[in-house]
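User: Here's a chain of 282 residues. Predict its fold as tokens.
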Amino acid sequence: MSFATVPDLILEPMVKAALMEDLGSYGDVTTRAVIPADTTYTARLNAREDAVVSGMQIAALAFRLVDQSLEIVTHIADGARASKGDTLMEIKGSAASILSAERVALNYAGRLTGIATKTAGFVAKAEGTEARITCTRKTTPNMRLAEKLAVLHGGGHNHRYSLSDAILIKDNHIAAAGGVRQVLEATKRHASHMMAVEIEVDRLDQLKDVLEVGRASVVLLDNMDNDQLREAVAMVNGAMKTEASGNVTLDRIASIAATGVDYISSGALTHSARTVDLGLDF
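Assistant: Prediction complete.
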């Protein structure tokens, strides 16, 4: 599957900040000391294990921000599968520039490929059902856009990008406001008709209140077992979208999806993904 890329302009501040962090106040002193300025080379970014690729656009951007003259060819695009030993990208030009950008490019590529690979594993478990796998806002600070792109590359879907995207009423909102009915009545009075509303419940009696009051378009079924999820789906009966969340592990995905929920959200896609082993070989 091919993916439309986010404009580099949007990604550039994040990648530039990472490069500035790595280069410090005086740049790559090691490379300047030992590599003649006119040395050129071709480096290959290689997969050292099977994976679903992500972060190639961002890795290429890291190299270009260090040196616009580098020639970069991506062989395996974001969202594609790679096997151990595959070359994902070739970078040709100044050896000093390649070495100066290497760590930031690899950090992004390995981290994001790990998220895409983990997401693909979750998506495979839901195959044959209508359930969609989604991420959450449990992302690395200042890397949310990149990590959510990696979820898409793995075949998953995105939840909110920020607190301003939609109204998501959680248990603490309900507790502070006085109950399910109170928070939903408040959204009727104050929320724009263009703003989607999702509400979290962890008991079926709360779901009954949600259905009676109305206004919500999605209900988040938090930490429910599969029997409760099935009952909740039957109660909703298509009146709104259903999302299962909490205690979502790889070995539960298939059984959760079989309950008939529309979405399965998991913070583990981003906060617990293992970095995939990628290497830049000269």
